[in-house]
TrEMBL record, chains A, B, C, D:
Pfam family, one: TetR_N
HTH tetR-type domain residues: 20-79
InterPro entries listed in its UniProt record: Homeodomain-like_sf, HTH-type_TetR-like_transc_reg, HTH_TetR, Tet_transcr_reg_TetR-rel_C_sf, TetR_SbtR-like_C
Protein name in UniProt: TetR/AcrR family transcriptional regulator
Coiled coil: none
UniProtKB keywords: DNA-binding, Transcription, Transcription regulation
Keyword Protein biosynthesis: no
Cross-referenced SUPFAM superfamilies: Homeodomain-like (SSF46689), Tetracyclin repressor-like, C-terminal domain (SSF48498)
DNA sequence: CATGAATGAGCTTTCATTCAT
DNA sequence: GATGAATGAAAGCTCATTCAT
């Protein structure tokens, strides 16, 4: 409020633009580091990759969860948004559910350590966990309810458990060639089907 | 001379008894610490709990994996041994498989951090991973084969993947009241069933 | 803006000054500790002496060799640079060699444990060893060659061996009043003289 | 005492013999370990090699120096005893000195870490140092005096310094193929010669 | 006497987080 | 706002030495 004499609005504008650019640099760097070292990579590494001081990271993303969320927000959002569309176009609700889960798995499986971080009881990641649930749980619930309503699947598993199970199945999937998370998830989803 | 069947030699007998007691103290302490802090708990903590120097732990269990294996060996063995029995008594192979997996899940779910450790790519736990596989994979394979042979289940999932999936589903199960690993595993196993 | 010629960039200038002061504190502390406890003194001790966290040492000097080199760099460089001058001014090349070696000995003899560290096969000190050789071997070679060319000394000892011998003779010289490394080195150099 | 039926007095005899054998086993093991790991090898390793408890080592050789001395005693003694003989047979006292020193060097150079241990200020090795001096200093003095008396060498270097110098030159000689301690010692001894 | 288990100080190294500049 | 230096708690691991059996 007391920044009289700072110049015109455009000055503040460029400031903001700078900050925004910086933020994006950070996100890109973090994404890159997460791929190679996982989401628990040392803050220093990320700062180095972004060519930025560590303080800058803490300023933009006070907790690690904030950073992780920011990095994956777009993809999580895209996943969330895909739900209704799939439901509308899918042959059946259960099929839509399956395809939506595939989307989620595709996302998780390619994020080194993300699935594990989501399940960890580490306090650092509580917010991360919460974000994913906030965003995806309603969608999953909708799909699940639809599938249950159509009689295709049993209705005794809630979306939280399903998402948790799927997330769990994705843990470590990228580092073990003998394991195929997609396959396992497929079986899990198959298991949901109403026993004739 | 009258300790035939006692093991290796008699000279060190008295010493042996002490060491054995100590070893047990250690295992108990480790088990206790594992429950609260997970299998990655600092060696120091375990030593403290056992009221023992850290060196003592390293003497008995040179690597962390050795300790973890020792702590859970009996239960893993029991699980392994239960396989054939279940197969013999179960109504069907698939039912036997389900019950055997329940056993495994019951075990894992109560061991804070074990399931996660099994899936970690941390070199410390390689041996642990190997031990579980050595012990349980053959049993699982046998059950799976039998179920496949009986035509109850699809035969396109190998035991490794199944165990990995089940193990994954157990991660973090003890610290989240909203999640029921047993339930998810049940669905997974159901998903194995031959589609009509 | 007026720090032209100060080094790399101006933005970090103020920071740099601080760090530089700290670096110097570290070097002083290390030098002091080295005097009393030798160059293998615990990192903690050096940090304590400098009244600094241990991390600070690791930041400035990632390996122990880096620290040791930094502590002695000036003196090693001075020694290296003295070579050509001595050669130019000395009555004979052999005399110059002798005086140059005296310089080296004076340096080594006052550095508790340095001579020993130079000869140790401890991997930590490889770099240190290399640094000394890089810096001093060429100089020694030059002097040795000149003396050989002048016919004063035998030419069948290379500079590496000479330096190693001299270095060895300096080991422990500071802690044994009955031993006079300078004297021994003098004899060694005398032994180089061409047998009439 | 309650080993009635063990036999006659010969039992005690065998006891002693046992102890002696044990002692020898220890020395052999230590010698072997010293070769590969140096004289500072962990006590445990030596005990293991000897297939003996660590307590046994401490009983026989309370300090490390005691053990080292015992291991090398014969060779040190042999070296000491060779002195007078060489003096009697050598062409000149200086030649005898040179040959005696060669003997010493041959001994030292083949004992990984011994030369360094002799020069260390580590309190553990004080006794070792003392033993070597006790045994060899008189011999060296005798040879040196004779050579000085014959006018072959300068008389201003005492035996202690000479031995120390020679010892120093042997440090690390076995692990550096570019360094030839014998050569350097030869030069040192040459340097002793009375300048014309 | 011998054994070897136990002790625990001592060292190294890594990083999350803070904060002076 | 940005920087990155500094901090210092944590953990791991090793061995000399003691001492109960």
């Amino acid at each position: 409020m007391n920044d009289i004499g700072q110049g015109t609005g455009s000055a503040a504008g460029s400031k903001r633009k700078d900050a925004r650019r910086n933020r994006q640099t950070l996100l890109d760097a973090a994404a890159a580091v997460f791929v190679t070292s996982g989401v628990e990579a040392p803050v220093r590494d990320i700062a180095a990759k972004a060519d930025v001081g560590m303080g800058t990271i803490y300023r933009h993303f006070p907790t690690r969860a904030d950073l992780v969320i920011a990095v994956y927000r777009h993809q999580v959002d895209a996943c969330a948004e895909a739900g209704p569309a799939l439901l509308a176009t899918g042959p059946t609700p259960h099929a839509a559910l399956g395809r939506w889960i595939d989307l989620f798995v595709d996302f998780l499986v390619t994020k080194h350590g993300l699935a594990a971080a989501l399940q960890t009881d580490n306090a650092d990641f509580e917010t991360l966990h919460a974000y994913f649930l906030d965003r995806l749980l309603p969608v999953c619930t909708q799909l699940l309810d639809a599938a249950a309503a159509s009689g295709e699947i049993r209705s005794d598993l809630n979306a939280y458990q399903l998402m948790r199970g799927v997330g769990n199945l994705c843990i470590g999937a990228d580092s073990d060639p003998r394991y195929d998370a997609r396959r396992l998830v497929e079986l899990l989803v198959a298991g949901l089907r109403q026993p004739r």
